[in-house]
Amino acid sequence: MATLAEIRAKLKEQETRQGGNAPTGGGDKAIYPHWNMAEGTEAVLRFLPDSDKENIFFWKERLMIKLPFAGIKGQTDSRPVTVNVPCMEMYGETCPILTEVRQWFKDKSLEDQGRKYWKKKSYIFQGFVVENPLKEDEQPENPIRRFIIGPQIFQIIKGALMDPEMEELPTDFVRGVDFRIKKTSKGGYADYSTSQWSRRERALVDAEKAAIETNGLFDLNDFLPKKPSDVEVKVMTEMFEASVDGEAYDPDRWGQYFRAPGMSASTGDPNVSKSAPAVKPMTPVEEDANAGVERDDTGTVKPIQSTPVSETTEEKPSSERAQEILKMIRSRQQ
Fold this sequence. Notes:
alpha+beta
């Protein structure tokens, strides 16, 4: 059976596959925006497994870095903008931005600046919206939605998996359980700490089973950012340095690699040879406005370990497989 450490190591070899399910950015209705819920309301979700058989978990971890800029160069009325770039640690490689930022945490006067540029974690899930408090003008034809979950909710999800009293995977079609996202506020910010798993098991209804049969499950790898090329890594580093220096975002230098929100692709780059092949701008990344900074990060990275995948898992009864998976998750987290 795969471990979380093995999954992280495997991410360095994966790139987002192009296809009909690829994310298109801000207008993707498949993403359920739970952060738009009104305070005091709750949504009931039913998570589903990843179609990637090698993913033992039913989520994918995503690491992004936010680069704030004073504005956009050449626009007199430009407001501050933030460009999201992928952290190279998501692919099991050294991240040049974090290599620099880690040093800042050794100086207390630079800690706040370090947190600003520290990697932001979020997690990609899929499933059904069983109870929806939002009045969505449009809903996708495929009822299997995607969820961008921040660290606060994820800790609740993970905590239940660590509970020895949970005997079945919550994604099981017959004995699984729903998850209730509850939105409150604390200190003027959205708070989801009262979210919880339902206490009762619920088998999928016929309509839900039919949706899975008709549409299939998503491969969550398809919704991770494309792994940056060597050129794009250099561009990210240059953008990071410009951001720290308080400069404006320069679309002529970086537009064909990483676009600021709302901008179309740039065709020119004075720092790249005209004979160099054109580079497709990276696809805008799905974003959860409430996926916050991990305040307990210290800049220390543990070495990635790898554990062989069991080849006999699929031959065992589902109940036994669930127990093995839960045991593996608990062992990894401990």
